[in-house]
Design a protein that fits this description.
six-stranded parallel β-sheet; 26 strands; 35% helix
Length: 594
Amino acid sequence: MMKIYKLLFVLAALFMGCQLFGQTHVIITAGQSNTDGRVSTRDLPDYIKALSTDPVSFKTGAYKYCKIDQNREDGEFVPFYPKGRITPGLWAYDAVTYYKLGHALKQDFYVIKYAVGGTSIQYSKHIPPKGKGRYWSADPDFLKNTSSYETGGHSLLLSFTDAIDASIDKTLSKLKGGYQIDAFLWHQGESDGAHASQYYDNLKAVIAYVRKHLSEKTGKDYSRLPFIFGSIPTTNRDYSPIVELAMKRIAEEDPNAYLIDMSKGQLQRDHLHFTAASAEYLGTRMYGILAKIMHLNMEGFRVARYLNDKQAAISFTFDDGLAEQATLVAPHFNRLGFKATFFVNGRSISDSAANDGKPRMSWGQLRSMSKEGHEIASHGWQHRNFGKFPLAEIKTDIDKNDSAIYTELGVKPLTFAYANNTKVADGMVEVYKHHIASRLLQISLGSKWTAADLENRLEKLLTTDGWEVTMTHGITYGYDHFKDPDILWNYLKRIKSLEDKIWVGTFYDVAAYTKERKLVTFDIAPIGRGFVISPTLHLDMSLYTEPLTGLVDQKGIKKITVTQNGKRLKTVEKDGKYQFNFDPFGGKITVKTN
């Protein structure tokens, strides 16, 4: 009998070991003062105050599961409780994120945080910098000529990566079961207003540097590490629309960047730092995205990368409104069941004298195409190159074309393509005031492509699970027209043969789906045989109208029934998963399984 007890004890220990020594979750967090913390702990949410050992000022306490290395050099972790880098009694949005994450995980996780108030990415014009400046810059020349702030240099990025390295070497590498860095949280940008035009390149470089550093340090691929960040309230005294534009561009271009809109965030009297309500809001939103990324308490549910769980997506876009786009392209797409996007210039449609000798579509043709489901979008009224005209003329060009399209078609254009693909920040700010997305990256599909080239491109697309946006002008005439139009027609036929893998959607459809998928969050509650999904999406439902595809991947399911607000949704079983399309604004979704 004693031998049996010993055997059971060993088996139990092995089982517990498997449970206890799985990969440990790690979050990295960085930024400036709103990340360091400027909200008084007296204004902490009640659920965090309950963890405090100081019932008056709530300056001390400890979270049960969160361990943090905050602006340290030694790689040591301590139990987390909200505090500023220097000053106790302050908290930031991440305090809420870590609380909710611990509540969901119910096991230890680790945070490496480095935040310093009043800091920019862009460094001063001198290399090495003069004075006491501290910068997040990833510029190679800057980094080569300085060192971390702790060693007397000017680089906060090196301070951050040194802290990461010390934490890995001292603590994380010794955890049984290993560790996994799940996401990079960030809030910064207020101090970069003077260098706003450089912020897009600068922040992209910081993200790329950290991902590359983690990959090289750990031997794991962190090239797709989720980057979750918040924008800056428009009432912030240091708000810059160009900085906000840079954030939006990065979120559109990087499939693993998640931007939380804080433009309406409330600020303290200094018009710089979040109030308690705004800090809690940002922290909650960050947790919601984390929970989705980490598949926490999701009951096997997730949102497909693309509509109907397609592997990749293509949006075919056609510029300048050439007549054969209506007579050749649209009918061909209709026969295949595909929809395309046509970026048009209203003046050349309205005035034949402005068509440069190239026949254009009529408003009547565009109206018919719109009714067939094609997207008619804006390319500016007169094809104004943003780099060659003053902002006032660019603004007029945008507004006039939007008005003409709406007047003629009854549909507001929600996406935009830049004339000559020239992107100038001030003009782009005007574009984003009235459009949900603009064509930032594209493949020119025309005279230079062969059938073999396109086949290779297609294979690469399926390998990367990406979204490709093509740009075409002429088919048989006009700029960069095909040497043989059959190259395009045969390419479309080839894609049709792969429609179980590739979603051919308009530019709006895929852009809207992608943003909705990134930002939607869920509360999921088990109910008997099944669960209830409560989606939350902080976007304008009048502008974002794409359904999302939900996937349920649970073993042992023989049948599934899905309803949203009492309406039964169609379900499809594919590759062992059940999928259904739902309205992210449409209320609770009940999933019943058998």
